[in-house]
Amino acid sequence: MILLFLDLQNTTEPAVATETLAEVPEHVLRGLPEEVRLFPSAVDKTRIGVWATKPILKGKKFGPFVGDKKKRSQVKNNVYMWEVYYPNLGWMCIDATDPEKGNWLRYVNWACSGEEQNLFPLEINRAIYYKTLKPIAPGEELLVWYNGEDNPEIAAAIEEERASARSKRSSPKSRKATASAWHPDALHQQPRTSPGSVGRSKPRLQPSSRDHSSKSRHSACSLTAPEVTWNQ
């Protein structure tokens, strides 16, 4: 399977309102892992972010990302969604724009560059997970980015998932269930030129609000933790 972050940078959007903790749905708060809490983001002042309150080890997997399944024509903005390829449906968006439809992964923000990321997305059985790329200390914001398998650490982590999938498929008990649900070889496909072109792609994202080639925007993304007590 293949996942694709949908880029709608040419879509006209209204001014973004600042998110507040009071607006976070109760089911999101109840679903938070014990290692994280929600606080205002340091990379985007209009959004809530996810912050570590306890050490998180490298290789920790969170998910899946939850949202409404929609066609591209139903998408209104590109902030809180991924696009996943289904053999019987084609490309479908997993849209968590509505907080009531998503889970806490909705509040994980984009890193300003690959260097600042500590999470990367991973597609398993047509569901999207975030996996830690490095240890995350208390007081650090969880930030996701996708720079493909050009990053040796990400490539190694993806290969680890492939090996795990192959091991499960070789088990007589799970061979039938896993053989049709996991297609790691699809991640080797070349990227498409645009979300609307024909063919498949390896996972990629194009966050229109995260142009890390811009020095001014990059400098604005320096991480400063909010004033909170991390052992709460």
UniProtKB/TrEMBL annotation:
Which domain of life, per UniProt?
Eukaryota
InterPro entries linked: PRDM2_PR-SET (IPR044414), SET_dom (IPR001214), SET_dom_sf (IPR046341), Zinc_finger (IPR050331)
The segment(s) forming the SET domain are 34-147
Q: Does the keyword Transcription regulation apply?
A: yes
* The keyword Transcription regulation is annotated on this UniProt entry: yes
User: Which controlled-vocabulary keywords does the entry list?
Assistant: Transcription, Transcription regulation
- CDD domains from the UniProt entry: PR-SET_PRDM2
Region annotation Disordered: residue ranges? 161-232
Q: What is this protein called?
A: PR/SET domain 2
Gene name for this UniProt entry: PRDM2
